């Protein structure tokens, strides 16, 4: 009998937004910049999918069941989404362009070590307050 892992990681993550038209451009820019593939689902006008090379995927959906207009990361539930990036150069490129793409930087006064001296990352939130942390490898 071979040792088969009980888990292979993230399958997908679904994020709800109150306004897909506002949130989609920010997420599309960020994820395609990080080489995720955009997928369209025919007939699903209120949802978008981006797939990573490892086949995990992220869903952004506008639902009539969404409560409120902004995410609140300090409430119970998801605090933020953290993604790996190749290196600090990628962080710098994204950080420079992100404000014009719908992202608001968080903890700018502590960049790139807001997560601690041994942690190199950039933090931002989308137009509806969903926080993303990009962590540089190494």
Automatic annotation (TrEMBL):
SUPFAM superfamilies per UniProt: Glyoxalase/Bleomycin resistance protein/Dihydroxybiphenyl dioxygenase (SSF54593)
Pfam families associated with the record: Glyoxalase_4
Protein name: Glyoxalase
Domain VOC intervals: 9-137
Superkingdom of origin: Bacteria
